[in-house]
């Protein structure tokens, strides 16, 4: 059976590539999603993506995905630092969870250092730019196939 990975993007990430390239890089969200889908499908995984600027829409997406997905990658964006609602919706899922941040949230304003997700995530990738999503996907696929090898 094909395993399904859900990728969620929080508010303003639809602006990637259009503003603040010095912090968030030059790639668009479309570029990132396409690269993730390509990599997942060549490894035999199904991958869906969803972006919203609205907390409730992200919660709805997580509720609809209940029992349908095997792993979740999330960049909650600004909701990282505020959202108990998204945290609770993620806790509905008994699946591996990887939190991704394009920038290094620990090197920026103090309020960005706290995440409502870090203690419920399987792992976190921060500060590696858009490639962090691909690294997170590789890690997720390895987790979902029980791979422990390093190559
Ligand atoms: O570094 C990350 O990935 C963040 O999750 C990005 C969020 C920020 O609030 C978090 O603290 C760290 C902001 C996303 C805003 O994305 C933009 C993209 C292009 C132009 C402007 C904003």
Describe this structure in words.
With 151 residues, the chain is an alpha/beta fold. It has one domain: Rossmann fold. It is 33% helix and 17% strand. It is built from five helices and five strands. The protein has helices at 21-24, 29-42, 55-64, 84-91, 131-144, and strands at 4-9, 46-51, 71-75, 97-101, 123-126. Helix 2 runs parallel beside helix 5 and helix 3 (55-64) runs parallel beside helix 4 (84-91). The two termini are 24 Å apart. The mean pLDDT is 96. Residues 12-13, 15-16, 19-20, 24, 75, 77-78, 80, 101-103, 105, 112 line the site of ligand CA2. Pfam families: DHquinase_II (PF01220). The active site is at residues 24, 101. Its EC number is 4.2.1.10.
Give a brief description.
Catalyzes a trans-dehydration via an enolate intermediate. The chain is of the alpha/beta class and 151 residues long.
């Amino acid at each position: 059976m094909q395993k399904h990975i859900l990728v969620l993007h929080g508010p303003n990430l639809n602006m990637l590539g259009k503003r603040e390239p010095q912090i968030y890089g030059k790639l668009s969200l479309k570029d990132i999603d396409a690269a993730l889908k390509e990599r997942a499908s060549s490894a035999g995984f199904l991958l869906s993506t969803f972006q919203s600027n609205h907390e409730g829409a992200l919660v709805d997406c997580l509720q609809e995905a209940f029992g349908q997905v095997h792993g979740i990658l999330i960049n909650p964006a600004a909701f990282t630092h505020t959202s108990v609602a998204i945290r609770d919706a993620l806790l509905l899922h008994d699946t591996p969870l990887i939190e991704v941040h394009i920038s290094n949230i620990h090197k920026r304003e103090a309020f960005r250092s706290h995440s409502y997700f870090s203690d419920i995530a399987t792992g976190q990738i921060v500060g590696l730019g858009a490639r962090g999503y691909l690294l997170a996907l590789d890690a997720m696929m390895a987790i979902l196939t029980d791979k422990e090898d390093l190559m």
